[in-house]
Specification:
The protein is of the alpha/beta class and 291 residues long. Helices cover 34% and strands 15% of the residues. It has an 8-stranded mixed β-sheet, sandwiched between helices.
Length: 291
């Protein structure tokens, strides 16, 4: 896909206040994706950039429980982009028009400036931390031991802390005696669920889970996040899906997912990992972009 066509679907200042009815090509593409979701539970789109994927989702009228945004972190691996903040603020803005919940990942020093610039209607629900002790960095001195994730939500978006209740709390809930529903940071005794401790997938750690992706996250890291925000049979969009970890977790939990990555190499990793091929929708996308 060409960037010129993408800008028509995903303008720098997106505005959906006057949405038009879906075109014939938009309806057709929506139907193809919906049918594949019903059949396989997880859908892999052909390689596309994050803005192209969000633009197509907008054009075909899709809405999601959750969008996972796990980009390169503008530091070290993945390179540096001068307009990183402006670019991803726009990505977050468009994501907030397509989903009730948006997760945005990065190193703490990268995501911190975003907190005071969150585009409406999204609000900060929680600052989450993934903590790991096994960073293999050969740099002398301090080593990074955490990633940050901003959980952003639209007003009125539903959370599902009941999925984390312990047996005693579940029994009280069944009896109608649970006086309040514990929040995300206190749903399990002796656990703080705004901090997820899980080792990096390096060396022999998580060997069976490793796919060859250079920055793959463990499935347990995404598992907590999706359980908190996904409805039964809800749909997740991951437009920077890497090797498809979020899709693997969604499938395991009975949720549905649409995955895409701009890399052909990573798209092939997803196909191998999930045992499904990408959708053949080049003709339908081309027709949509011609509008």
């Amino acid at each position: 896909m060409k960037n010129t066509a993408t800008r028509q679907l995903f303008p720098y200042e997106a505005d959906d206040s006057h949405r038009k009815p879906l075109s014939r090509s938009g309806n057709r593409l929506h139907g193809i994706i919906a049918e594949a979701l019903d059949r396989d539970g997880v859908v892999i789109l052909p390689p596309s950039s994050v803005e192209e994927t969000l633009g197509i989702a907008t054009a075909i009228g899709m809405f999601f429980d959750t969008i996972m945004l796990d980009p390169w972190y503008n530091k070290g691996f993945g390179g540096v982009q001068p307009d990183y903040m402006a670019y991803f603020l726009n990505v977050i803005r468009q994501s907030g028009k397509l989903a009730d919940h948006v997760y945005y990942w990065g190193f703490p020093e990268i995501v911190a400036p975003f907190v005071e610039r969150i585009p409406e209607p999204l609000k900060l629900t929680c600052w989450l931390t993934w903590y790991y002790k096994n960073n293999p960095s050969v740099i002398r001195g301090w080593r990074s031991s955490q990633n940050a994730c901003l959980h952003l939500s639209r007003p009125g978006a539903t959370l599902h802390p009941e999925r984390f209740l312990n047996e005693k709390q579940l029994a009280l809930k069944e009896q109608g005696k649970l006086r309040y529903m514990p929040g995300p940071t206190s749903v399990l005794e002796d656990k703080s669920w705004d901090v997820v401790e899980e080792p990096l997938l390096v060396g022999f750690v998580g060997r069976k889970e490793q796919t060859g992706h250079p920055s793959q996250k463990p499935q347990k890291v995404y598992d907590h996040l999706l359980q908190m925000t996904m409805s039964e049979k809800g749909v997740l969009l991951d437009p920077m899906a890497g090797s498809g970890t979020a899709g693997a977790v969604a499938r395991h939990r009975g949720f549905r997912a649409i995955l895409c990555d701009r890399s052909e190499e990573y798209t092939q990793l997803m196909e191998k990992r999930l045992g499904i091929g990408r959708l053949s929708i080049a003709r339908e996308v081309a027709a949509l972009l011609e509008l």
